Amino acid sequence: MRELIDRFERFAPQTWAEPWDHVGLQLGRLDAEVHKVLVTLDVRPEVVDEAIAVGADLIFAHHPLMFHAAKDLDLANPQNQMYATLLQHGITVYGAHTNLDSAPGGMNDWLATALNLQDCAGLVPSNGATATPAVTMGRVGALPTSMTVSEFAMTCKKVFNVPGLRLISHRPEAMVHRVAVLGGSGSEFYPAAMAAQADVYVTGDVSYHPAHDMLAAGFSVVDPGHHIESICIPHLTRMFQDWTTANDWPLTVVATQINTDPFTFI
């Protein structure tokens, strides 16, 4: 396992993560022997069951297993029971969150590529301890063909394969030439998207009052949800498989088949 993690941390060092984040080893031992890796967005009980079923001994996730410290280990709590199940089956969990968001060629480049953005630049500087000016969260770039805000929102719905999204705009007929995107919960960065002269901003988890502020500023925002970050699953899986082949590691890498999006549109 150590070889895989060392290689990944050259791609997205832990020190590029935001100061509030919790990345790296989440549970288990980094010196444990690993034969199969399961790549996922979230670590949920059903994903742990999947890891057990496929014989994975490492779960590599984008979202950390532990955002907050456990106050007790009462196994009546499903979260605590999940920790116990992981330990019982000897499964190690590693999380790469905002360091993967900021990494060149990482999460936000994958999202920008999916939207076919051209001539991309970083949106906001990383606050990671060792981040350089090239390490940034979010991307801003140009569409190859201009379209209206409404058309762009429908494009996002199709590209990210979501059953619905939220459009925040007083001018759905306005033309979109330049787009900013930041995966996850990025509503606080909409002023940076405006400063970068984006015509529309794509990010998740926009709440009520920030949405009003966006409208008051005359800015259009598309919220396709947080789960669009699942785009990392095929990219990470392919990257790990390439490294495994190049280094002749005795490792199998598989992508989760579980949809961890908690929301259903009805």
UniProtKB/TrEMBL annotation:
Keywords (A to Z) from UniProt: Metal-binding
Positions bound to a divalent metal cation: 62-63, 101, 226, 229
SUPFAM superfamilies associated with the record: NIF3 (NGG1p interacting factor 3)-like (SSF102705)
Database matches in Pfam families: DUF34_NIF3
Highest taxon in the source lineage: Bacteria
GO molecular function: metal ion binding
UniProt xrefs under InterPro entries: DUF34/NIF3, DUF34/NIF3_sf
GO cellular component: cytoplasm
Keyword Lipoprotein applies: no
Assembly, per entry: Homohexamer.
Family: Belongs to the GTP cyclohydrolase I type 2/NIF3 family.
Cross-referenced NCBIfam families: YbgI_SA1388
Designated name of the protein: GTP cyclohydrolase 1 type 2 homolog
Organism this protein belongs to: Levilactobacillus senmaizukei DSM 21775 = NBRC 103853
